[in-house]
TrEMBL record, chain A:
Keyword Transmembrane helix: yes
Site keyed Reversibly protonated during proton transport: positions: E56
Role of this protein: Key component of the F(0) channel; it plays a direct role in translocation across the membrane. A homomeric c-ring of between 10-14 subunits forms the central stalk rotor element with the F(1) delta and epsilon subunits. F(1)F(0) ATP synthase produces ATP from ADP in the presence of a proton or sodium gradient. F-type ATPases consist of two structural domains, F(1) containing the extramembraneous catalytic core and F(0) containing the membrane proton channel, linked together by a central stalk and a peripheral stalk. During catalysis, ATP synthesis in the catalytic domain of F(1) is coupled via a rotary mechanism of the central stalk subunits to proton translocation.
Superkingdom of origin: Bacteria
Organism from which the protein derives: Sporolactobacillus laevolacticus DSM 442
UniProt name for this protein: ATP synthase subunit c
Gene that encodes it: atpE
From TrEMBL, chain B:
Record protein name field: ATP synthase subunit I
Disordered: annotated span: 128-150
Top-level taxonomic group: Bacteria
Keyword Membrane in annotation: yes
Residue stretches spanning the membrane: 7-29, 35-55, 76-93, 99-122
Keyword Nucleotide-binding appears in the UniProt entry: no
UniProt KW keywords: Cell membrane, Membrane, Transmembrane, Transmembrane helix
Amino acid sequence: MSLAVLAGGIMIAFGALAAGIGNGVLFSRYLEGIARQPEAQGTLFGQSMIALGLVEALPVISIAFGILVLFGII
Amino acid sequence: MKPVMEWFSRVVLIVTVCYVVVFGLIWFLRPARALASGFLLGGLISLYNVFHLSFRLRIAGLRIQSGSRKMAGLHMTVRVLAIVFGTLIVYRFPTRIDYRSFVLSLLFGYLLLVTVMSYYYLKGNGKTSSDEGGEIHGSDSESEISRNDL
């Protein structure tokens, strides 16, 4: 097994792991907030969108780069 | 919440159309075909991901509000698979699609999301009904009635 395959796998795995944890925490807080205060859903929706966008940007890049490294394009 | 979602959907639709037209013209006029197709593919996947994320978030919120016991997730696998699909296309046609522009443009949708939503809140549109006593965000008023009655 070459090192490129290992590097690609590590990039994808840790990117997905970090995104999963971050999204899970954010999403659970979002649902908790709506359950506690349903009229605040508009505010919570926008703020959750901003936070989810910031959280998801990193794994997206790491997954794309990981696959490209895995296939030896980079 | 509906106005936020409608406004965001409209902005994403307009940006998508402009994006496709600009990079489609660049691709069609052949100044840099590989770059343009990379930007086109990555940008479209990214915009789809952002739209899908907002849609799932909205569905989950509405399910919680309506008291449904059915679980609603964010469907992150779908978004990851969309990126994998795009990357496999880049791998299949390496001479026609530039991988650098593809990876760079994957960030486009998320940057757009943060910019647009920040702009929305900086304009002062994101106040709740408890802040101003205005229109109640959300679709159902039953939960409000039941809570007030209790």
